[in-house]
């Protein structure tokens, strides 16, 4: 994207007052480019991951194991956003946390680039840790660029920032996917490291344009808290080391000794977090009712993400083995399917924004609950649509690429109905005491959904079979209909929130 820097003297005291980026503080350009390159590295590696795991020239694992690894990895990224936000708030401050996160992600991709299965899993862990640290803090720094929530440029700034996410996600499979599939898998992972290196360099060079408060630790740990935290961390790390040493030296170690605990954590932690907030006696009656309603949205979102995120695993593995990946006779890399969603997001998001405003002016805009229910029904419909290429493949033929593009299209429309609304309702329904933590709670819905997919795969369920695809599709549609049927009860619990 071409940079648009202009003189701006109308808002003295704003970070980067001498120049603006499309009318926004100059620091937005720094964060835009950092996030674009980080997403380039993340989505590029993610597009290659399931294909590398099943490839004869890769790790040559079964589809079920590859899906489990992919799902656990994605769930970990979102799960680690919670401790990532905690580090930004209590230990390093957002700016330092993002710088450290970028270095960890780059190191992780470099580790993935090494031709060894042992280091491969270590690299996945490093990328997940770094992504969790970065995800929770970079958006916070975007908010720091503006004069509070009432700054009229704030929403537009986040829109520009999210364009960076989708630009990176769109370009990554086209570049990293092509090199990884057609030249060398590990060279593809190395390109992801280069992308993160460019993002980190951009961040360090442009950090002078960021708000001063981005360097501040909002609620630093006391010395007593630091000692207690380090002690607890050392105890748990020690337990893990001893446990896995015993399992390893006894000859019983398999990959499931890692996958199963991580998958269970992805299901247990979201339940524990929601239960802790719901039981908090400091919440007044109105906040308690809002949390009761929010749990409906959370469960609905978990079902949505369980199916939606299989676009990068189940659908990708199907495309690799059973689809005719050609356009007018020209064959393209399987990883290119992962560029369909971001380009559709960029094309359709402005249309949806205009459409909701137009309906709102007429007093006909659907409620949050109706949008949520529609998103669920659509993601279910996408898997009903998936039954057609599955049937074609079962008949011994290759399914046309258009079938997969159609599935991604329906899922993207569902995402545009559910995801932005979910982010909005999370901030609106958050109890005052948990205002800064609820965005992390929203990410846990993704964790729970992907952990469920991981658990099914670990149990040996083939997610590319007609029966399980139809069952998941039915579950999503039934969940959507149930949310719609109980909309009046949920509205009552939401109180004044709409």
TrEMBL record:
InterPro entries: Dipep/tripep_permease, MFS_trans_sf, MFS_Transporters, POT_fam, PTR2_symporter_CS. The chain crosses the membrane at residues 43-62, 68-86, 98-114, 120-138, 159-179, 185-205, 233-251, 257-277, 289-308, 336-357, 369-393, 399-418, 439-461, 467-486. Keywords: Cell membrane, Membrane, Transmembrane, Transmembrane helix, Transport. Residues 1-22 are annotated as: Disordered. Its main location: membrane. It is found in: Cell membrane; Membrane. It is a multi-pass membrane protein. It comes from the Bacteria. It holds the Pfam family PTR2. Belongs to the major facilitator superfamily. Proton-dependent oligopeptide transporter (POT/PTR) (TC 2.A.17) family. PANTHER family: PROTON-DEPENDENT OLIGOPEPTIDE FAMILY TRANSPORT PROTEIN, RESISTANCE PROTEIN MDTM, PUTATIVE-RELATED-RELATED. This is Oligopeptide:H+ symporter.
